[in-house]
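Fig. S4 source data, part A: sequence.
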Amino acid sequence: MIAVNTKRTGNPKRDNRGYAEPMTSEQLDRLLSEDWLREMVADIRAGKEELKERLPFVCPHYSRFKNNHRAQKDIIPEAFTFMTCVDVDDKGLVAKAIENTKALMEDEMSEWHDMVLRMAKSARDKLHIWVRLPKGKTIQETQEEFCKEIGVPYDDSCTTPERFIFITGIDQEIYRSPDWMKPLPAEEIEERREAYINRGLDVDGRNEKQFTVHNAQCTVKDAALVQGVQDAALVQGVQDTALVQEVQGVKPQALESSPRTRYIMEACMKEAEVTEDMLVNEGARHNSVKSILSVGATQLLTREEFMAELSLKMPENWMDKNIQQLVTDFYNKYHEPEQKMNQFQRRVFARSLKNGNGNDNGNGNGNFNGNGNFNGDGNCPPAMPKKLPKLIKLLTKNTPEQYKAAVAHAVFPPLATHLCKVSFRYTDNKEHEATLMNCVMAGTGTGKGCIDDPIEHIMADIKRRDKENEKREKEWKKECQRKGDNKDKRDRPEGLVIQMIDPDMTKPALVTRMDESEGHFVYVKLNELDLFEQLKGQTGKQHFQLMCLAFDPGAEYGQTRIGTQSVTARPRCRFNWNACTTIQKGRKFFSRVLTDGPISRINFCTIPEEEIGGEQPIYGVYDAAFDEELKPYIDRLCAARGLTDCPQAFKLAKRLQQEVAEFAQLSQDKVYWNLSHRACVIAWLKACVLYVANGMKWESAIEDFVRWSLKYDLWCKMQFFGEAIAKAESGDDARIGTRGPRNLLELLPDTFTLDDAKRIRRQQGMDIENYRTEKMIRTWINRKYVIQNTEYSFQKSRK
């Protein structure tokens, strides 16, 4: 659906610019196909310019407004379409814009590859280009970036949220995507709204609140954003509550909506299987509201909060007498504060506090409300994307929900082990092979064995070949034992490639395996991380050295011995592995090498603690059909050779580096910054592995997945080791706790002084020398995070 004004009703109230009503895609297509519309456009182009005002118009950004009143104060955030329309208003640039847009659509490397929705000539024979907003990007950011890509001037008048454009007939279309006017999946809408909330914006990408009403007073947060209020002082002087609410477009009976209450309402609707269309359907709306109330809304929302959300979902009918009576009756009869919550209600309540606030909760593990890579809070890592790359979706389809994140990380070492002499060029121009090491750190009894079946099926082909070569090796050894020391013995057989190794082996045996691997990776899966202790060697740190060498491009691993029977070889160190451990054991295992490098080279993941008495997780079946689906991906990995170029992954790595750098500047957290370098490499290698497994084809879902994987990896590292690393680097042996980087800029008021910045640094345990604080602020100014007012006074920008 989308908000439209047909301007053909004959009703002055409905035909003016301030009116827009919801219209379905079918209705809009019928309107676009009208003969009178085609004739009117022809007349306008023939010189009858006055007819343009009689053209129908569409509001590209929203599907409906409160009371069908097209104004900013009557915007319904949940009605956001997540698309915008670029206006090319220079006839001389129309051909160029069309050509460049088509080129972007055909370029699989471009982030706009599948984002162009429609191109149509305007009434004056200019151009309208409809595009989907990239996830987390605002209307203005999207317009600016797209115009830059196609080489046309950016017009800031096209970014107002309530904007409308006059439409022309279907005969004026140059291109239409199958996805134009197609409803987005509920999961994608949820992800897009969450991306905005994590930036401190409302669910439609605008500033979350324009007014704050408290004790019958109204204060303007940003008078420039208020539609219809020309004098901010007039609004600031309003004392009457009803008048304030009228200015805001809020009915007196309903409170302000919030991210928390919106999240709860959406969750209850999903649980009740109620869609927004059902709430505006005359025959279904009453029972739809009853269904939402029945699944637990009365336990999770106050009556006022529920009515506030209902006013957004059904703006035309929420004040109907029968709806008001239904809600009142439910809260009178079924609202029992002392009643025990069921499992659904407990889950939604907990997540509403985390997902619905987007702000730091004061425990030192706050969210980064921007495009950075540290997310989650002290208890929960970042949520896994709903839309996954095809291979990851396959590998996690039989996994219970609470284990999917762990499995999605753990499958990469065995997948990468199928690559042989395949390398990728990173942003620093160094070639990397896909060395990926994964460790699942989770509590006792949390289900760390969830990774076993997927890994076993991924490694099945390698395991079969290894058994054949192990048999050949065993026969050769028996033959050698039957012959005396003075008799000739057959040389060691060629082609003894054995990739899956036992950790209980000597260094010479491991060197031999690597030397005979013919460019393949050796691989080990450990049910317990401390089994690595069997590889200690004489130095006591051989296993840690092995982890570091494996990750570093071109590193060798081996030994030189004089004896004729001794192993002398220095092969390329190709070593991938999976391991599991409890959090306590994991911290102890790495406690002596916190600053030596192994932690930053390993991809960590975890499994959340289940509530006591929770339901038993049920796994799917890993059968021949699963193996058949998996086989094409494995075959593609095995067939690849040589230096492989993945331009999309390269561009993604650049973006991820920029994002972590921005957050590092804002958080001033050295541990996060140091860990992020190799974490970006790990995330990039995952993208490359998925690209090869997918037949050298890029999926749009890969970017979201890899970005989440990076956030998740850094969250785990900061959660499990952040405080310990910081104390080790400072030489402090005090007790270790959990920590996470804080966005220092968010901790400061909108206008702050140099002393304020020093105070925040002191609270976070950082150096407070003037030059360090001034350097931090100078960096913020250069990156346009803050604006300098006076020598010692600064103000946050809107970036």
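Fig. S4 source data, part B ends here. The radius of gyration is 31 Å.
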